[in-house]
Amino acid sequence: MDILKEAEAFENAKMSHMSTSDRVKASREAKRLILAINEIYKKTKESHLMDVMKRLTVKKKKIEIRLKGKPEPAF
Q1: 3-class secondary-structure state, position 32
Q2: pLDDT reported for residue 7
Q3: How many angstroms separate the CA atoms of 37 and 10, rounded?
Q4: What is the pLDDT, as a whole number, of residue 1?
Q5: Whether 11 contacts 59, CB under 8 Å
Q6: For 60, which of 19, 30, 37, 48 could close a Cys bridge (C-beta 3.0–4.6 Å)?
Q7: Over the stretch 4-63, which tens digit does the pLDDT of each residue have?
Q8: Hey, what's the torsion of the CAs at 28, 19, 74, 61, to 10 degrees?
C-alpha cells in the first residue's frame, strides 16, 4: 500500500506560498492519487479508502479554487 503513504504525505504537505505551476502539479498529483486509490477501492470496498479519497478531493478542490479564482455571483 505504497499509494496510501504517498496520499498521507500529500495531505500533510504545506500548500502555502506555491507558484501557479506548483499548484497545477499538486492538482494533478491529487488526481493521480485519487484515481489510484479508487482502483484499489473498487476491488476491496474498504471504507477507510473512501475517507482518504474524500480528504484528497477536498484538498484538490481548494487548490483548484485558488487556480481558477472564486466564481462571481450571477445577478
Answers
A1: helix
A2: 94
A3: 13
A4: 62
A5: yes
A6: 30
A7: 999 999 999 998 899 999 999 999 999 999 999 999 999 999 999 999 999 999 999 999
A8: 30
Give the span between the Cα atoms of 47 and 21, in whole angstroms: 33
* Torsion angle of C-alpha atoms 38, 1, 28, 58, degrees rounded to 10: 60
**Res 73 pLDDT > 70:** yes
**What are the residue ranges spanned by the domains of the chain?**
2-11+19-67
Residue 20 in grid coordinates: 501557479
H helices present in the chain, as ranges: 2-12, 20-44, 47-68
Position 33, amino acid: L
Output the pLDDT for position 69: 82
